[in-house]
Amino acid sequence: MPVKQAEFLISNSEPDKCPAPDRPEYAFIGRSNVGKSSLINMLTGRSSLAKISGKPGKTQLINHFIIDNEWYLVDLPGYGYAQVSKSDREKFAGLIDGYLTSRPNLLCIFVLVDARIAPQKKDLDFMSNLGERGLPFVIVFTKTEKHSPTKLQNTLDTYRAKLLEEWEEAPQFFVTSAITAAGREDILSFIRPLNEG
Ligand code: GDP
């Protein structure tokens, strides 16, 4: 079932100013330029809910959206841009950390990775950190229409093998494309039952 209503609520730089944690919440995060804005627009069926920018490092705030008056979708700042200063990177890391530790209603974190790029230390470190803190996450592969099925399968297998070096089980994977809308129903069908608790 497609999203009926999607509205922007608030952007902020302080986790304690986020909306009251009165609905299930799902956060989307990934390295800058991974395709996060495109994925959010694709999922919600809105062409410009989240800003799509060719310029890395634009989304530096915690952005809350309310979906179907039922759940919060959160667009988190991209991590790991090379272009910003170390002190800014630390500031974003602190912001993300503050957010992740202050939302009792956060049911799942969608960690986006570009299917065209080999597993990166920054992404794996971020996932390790979530796992160590017991925060539930899944992996969303973006831009997958750029790959042949064989190449895509290789990417998924490489990721799985990398994750299994550290964990007994790999998190759930979603294969998506903002161009073809692949993965939309998979992600929305995953979210709905969690909402029902
Ligand atoms: P963000 O910085 O993570 O929010 O990434 P954007 O959504 O702004 O996308 C970054 C770039 O990747 C843009 O040029 C998008 O057009 C492109 N892009 C995003 N999603 C896809 C996709 O599914 N397939 C392809 N081929 N390009 C994509």
Automatic annotation (TrEMBL):
PROSITE patterns: G_ENGB
Protein role: Necessary for normal cell division and for the maintenance of normal septation.
Cofactor entry: Mg(2+)
Transmembrane segments: none
Keyword field: Cell cycle, Cell division, GTP-binding, Magnesium, Metal-binding, Nucleotide-binding, Septation
Upper classification of the organism: Bacteria, Pseudomonadati, Bacteroidota, Cytophagia, Cytophagales
Protein name: Probable GTP-binding protein EngB
UniProt superkingdom: Bacteria
UniProt family annotation: Belongs to the TRAFAC class TrmE-Era-EngA-EngB-Septin-like GTPase superfamily. EngB GTPase family.
UniProt domain EngB-type G: residue ranges: 22-197
CDD domains given in the database record: YihA_EngB
Leader sequence residues: none
